[in-house]
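Quick one:
INPUT:
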């Protein structure tokens, strides 16, 4: 019996029929995307102007493969700061038009521009003066003619041998939706912290965690005054279990840090009687509370340290350990 590994051969003839088919499909879709990029014009900017000024939602609609693309476009917009939702054109005719109101705009997707199920949606938009943006492959279609702004897809060959199955056209349509979503994101200056709000779970959520989300604060902070004897510093260092102790002045400003390495370098019979300021390493590496936890990991790795004090105006407000980042899934 042939093992799965044997089936995953790397020495397959590059001219194998299946590979030729796949490369032809991808080549056609790349050509479509290139034509889309080269053909973008002022209509794209007009569409962004309509969408940026909304007080409501972007309603994205499409039938069949265009409907699947519309769902993805709506999801991408919603996750990048543009409130959006998908409405099925056929369901719209049976009550879902009530989901669309003043202050909204509609993006209608139809490669032919003659999708019958779109008729009621288009009529509703015209009746209640709701901006309509068409994404279609036919500038002379009913949908394009009815739209306030028509984004015309470039002529491109579908990848299936019959030239019928939506493949290149749906890829180009999806990419145009991405371009709209990202352009709006950049216009609005959508920041990473808001992106994190919309993506609290999964890998994206972990990558966007801030230092302030996982740092230790208040009683967990290992701090002593510079004039404190090393015996006190060791007690705090042991109690807080952070592997270090921060040294502050009378104003609470961070002056330095004592780590296990400092203890070894200053080991002597009179160590416990010495002042903490005499043993500390000045210029401790610190980080801002609003920095990403991934930045903290990079900093600790580059300096071969395991802790960072979190400071505001040189005043320590927290401490973060490499293990805190690892437990939170930040790497």
């Amino acid at each position: 019996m042939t093992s799965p590994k044997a089936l995953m051969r790397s020495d397959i003839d590059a001219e194998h029929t299946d590979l030729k088919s796949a490369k032809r499909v991808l080549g056609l879709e790349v050509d479509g995307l290139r034509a889309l990029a080269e053909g973008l014009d002022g209509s794209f900017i007009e569409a962004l102007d309509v969408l940026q000024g909304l007080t409501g939602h972007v309603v994205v609609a499409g039938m069949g493969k265009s409907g699947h693309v519309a769902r993805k476009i709506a999801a991408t917009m919603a996750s990048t700061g543009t409130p959006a939702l998908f409405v099925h054109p056929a369901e719209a005719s049976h009550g879902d038009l009530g989901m669309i109101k003043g202050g909204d705009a509609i993006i209608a997707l139809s490669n032919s521009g003659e999708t019958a199920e779109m008729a009621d949606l288009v009529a509703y938009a015209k009746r209640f003066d709701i901006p309509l943006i068409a994404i279609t492959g036919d500038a002379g279609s009913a949908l394009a003619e009815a739209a306030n702004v028509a984004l015309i897809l470039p002529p491109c060959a579908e990848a299936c041998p019959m030239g019928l199955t939506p493949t290149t056209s749906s890829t180009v349509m999806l990419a145009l939706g991405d371009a709209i979503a990202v352009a709006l994101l950049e216009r609005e200056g959508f920041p990473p912290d808001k992106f994190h709000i919309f993506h609290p779970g999964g890998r994206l959520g972990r990558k966007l965690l801030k230092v302030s989300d996982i740092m230790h604060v208040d009683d967990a902070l290992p701090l002593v005054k510079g004039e404190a004897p090393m015996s006190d510093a060791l007690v705090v260092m042991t109690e807080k279990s952070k592997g270090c102790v921060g040294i502050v002045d009378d104003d609470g400003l961070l002056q330095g840090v004592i780590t296990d390495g400092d203890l070894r370098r200053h080991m002597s019979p009179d160590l416990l009687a010495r002042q903490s300021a005499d043993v500390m390493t000045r210029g401790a590496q610190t980080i801002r509370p609003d920095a990403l936890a991934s930045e903290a990991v990079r900093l600790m790795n580059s300096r071969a340290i395991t802790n960072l004090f979190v400071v505001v105006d040189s005043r320590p407000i927290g401490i973060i350990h490499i293990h805190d980042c690892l437990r939170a899934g930040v790497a």
